[in-house]
Amino acid sequence: MRPLISAILLASASLAVAANTDKAFVRARHTQNARDVRARSPKQYTLVDHYSAQHFMNESHWSYFTSADPTGGQTKYLSHADASKAGLAYVQNGQAILAVDSKNDLPLGAERDSVRITSTKAYNGGLFIADFAAMAHGCAVWPAYWTVGEHWPNGGEIDIIESVNLHVMNQYTLHTGPGSDCVLVKNTPTTSASSSALYTGTVMDTECKSSEGSNAGCSFLDPRNTSFGHGFNMAGGGVFAHLWDDAGVKMWYFERQSVPQDIHNGQPDPSSWPTPVAFWSSLGCDFASHLHNHHLVINTALGGGWASSDYPNSGCPGTLSDQITKGKNFVYAKWMINYIAVYK
Ligand SMILES: *[C@@H]1O[C@H](CO)[C@@H](O)[C@H](O)[C@H]1NC(C)=O
Ligand SMILES: *[C@@H]1O[C@H](CO)[C@@H](O)[C@H](O)[C@H]1NC(C)=O
């Protein structure tokens, strides 16, 4: 194009006009290129924290919660010293193992030993990448990997991994405080089947606000049967990533064989990833202003709210209380964590 334009301009006999036009043309082209490069170049994420196996055993980084089970189950959360002594928190083959007692039988109604850990550091956004080789699961088991602010539910809650009993499809949930007016914005019929879909998961609830008697949160179900529990572990585990920024909160689950190379390289680029499985768009409320100072939490509860309401129709044997009495029922109630990395 340029030689042709130059030839025409040269032929016009006005060299001044030619020079100016040519410069303007070149300038415009450079500006255009600069814009294209900016639009295509990914946002750079820089590593803020990298929690590897031994960090989960270090109370400067992760504290061990020892209060009564807040979900009303039969869980006794142990201190780090006690969990370590009981063989429920340790490092093996470069993985942090967080387990439930599977050795002891207990009387009916007794609490079973487990662990719940909380990052000492709090976050106000970022890109979080969690690689699990396995997650705790089983009948009467309610495992979760989640983040939560202070003074629940006012600081909000983000549930990245959560379900109960024999489910193999993961549920992703956001909770905001009672004063908020937050909703999950759904795909429209035109976006849902196209590449402009906001998310690929199945919407379960659209009301995010948690209040007395109504705290289900707004949630998605992952349609993949490798996203939770036995299905996840049989597939060799995988990576859960979530991005919390001004656009809202997006989540991805990558099966082991489809973890993007940029994650392996430590230079994650969410703009190159497929459509997230869950997305709470800031069109549904300014989520950023309803989520504050979130600590990361990993825990395994036994029984309690959701596990017990689901139990009768779960395909699990007998009653939940009977299930909890037998140690051998909990051999798979064990998290195996490769790492959690946080980027900004
Ligand atoms: C625990 O973490 C702190 C802070 O990073 C570090 O100074 C300390 O050496 C760690 N402790 C152990 C036992 O690794
Ligand atoms: C998941 O679904 C596939 C295909 O329907 C099936 O073969 C497999 O057994 C299921 N896995 C689990 C853990 O349910």
TrEMBL record:
Listed Pfam families: GH16_XgeA (PF26113)
Gene Ontology biological-process entries: glucan catabolic process
Matching InterPro entries: Beta-glucanase-like, ConA-like_dom_sf, Glycosyl_Hydrlase_16
Entry keyword annotation includes rRNA processing: no
Tagged with keyword Lipid metabolism: no
Database matches in SUPFAM superfamilies: Concanavalin A-like lectins/glucanases
TM ranges: none
Signal sequence bounds: 1-18
Record keywords, A-Z: Signal
Segments forming domain GH16: 49-344
GO molecular function, one term: hydrolase activity, hydrolyzing O-glycosyl compounds
Protein's name in the database: Concanavalin A-like lectin/glucanase domain-containing protein
Species name: Lactarius akahatsu
